[in-house]
Amino acid sequence: MPTPVITCIDDLKQLHRRRVPKMFYDYAESGSYTEQTFRENTTDFARIRLRQKVAVDMTGRTTAATMIGHRVAMPVALAPVGMTGMQCADGEIKAARAAEAFGVPYTLSTMSVCSIEDVAAHTTQPFWFQLYVMRDEDFVANMIERAQRAKCSALVLTLDLQILGQRHKDLKNDLTAPPRLTLKNLVNIATKPGWALGMLGTKRRSFGNIVGHAKGVGDLSSLMSWTSEQFDPQLDWDKIAKIRDQWGGKLILKGILDPVDARRAADFGADAIIVSNHGGRQLDGAVSSITMLPSILRAVGDKTEVWLDSGIRSGQDVMKAMAMGAKGTMIGRSYIYGLGAMGQAGVTRALEVMQKEMDITMALCGATTVDGLSRENLLIPADFEGAWA
Questions:
Q1: What is the pTM of this model?
Q2: Which position among 70, 168, 213, 278 bears the catalytic label?
Q3: CATH of 9-379, one of 3.40.630.30, 3.30.1330.10, 3.20.20.70, 3.10.310.50
């Protein structure tokens, strides 16, 4: 079979859909309830237009930037994505290695298939760790200690998943990791031979950060029950402060979508905040991340770095976020498509595609550096932020 020509992220998405079992493709490509917020995360990016500039010397341009002091090949970090190791065997390891080689940060999810220790053993540079706050405080403290021992260079604390949003597709697919061997699942997996062979060749098929570390988790049923009951609904700023003190390093707060919350997070001393609605997977009916970015930037000023997550599917989207004032971005689905399509090489290809798109777009907009981007490079609709009562 000839190697497919990949020109954009959507090419990887189509391959991902063909090569990965339905329940895991749907897990990545879904939002909560009506999926309005999931859709608008991308369609609102499309409302922003670019200003073409000519007769500007384009030699020596670069997409390089910094994110919380880390020099990066472009202002993009791989976001934490649960069950990445179900999109492709050993998925977290492959994604982390691709990110390291490319020169962008990788963030490992609490709900990863490969454990913190696994990823650390297969990489040479520090990665970031994302923490969900659970009811079991001993488990949380142990997770923080494990991330410290693995020399993770930043903690990404997710704030918008105290209660799990309902995603209809996951319920209809009876989503589990690994998948239950029902007739329906077996028939579907039989059409994905590459995925199946990869899974047969690895020992990593469940939540590596939980199994063997959480009390009372011994089999698939107890794991799923523990997971659904453990997200801490009492998470508040006092608990965030306790985690900050336990961690003692760079702290990034993810899931900020309101200017008041953003100001509180900045005053709290976060090294960065991530404007995010969890990819439309939590509060359906919330506005898109890119729509909320301007008001959050106004609220925070220069107190902390403001990044954007949710809806980025191209290098042009990255450039638009940076030109609006963000200091970095995170991508989830865009690299997951690549991972499901082609493994580690697919993640690399996703990053290459986005960097090339960003580079060419910057050039045609008359910008040679990321720091040189501004709202002058954009045409933003007058009603972009909405006239909400």
A1: 0.96
A2: 278
A3: 3.20.20.70
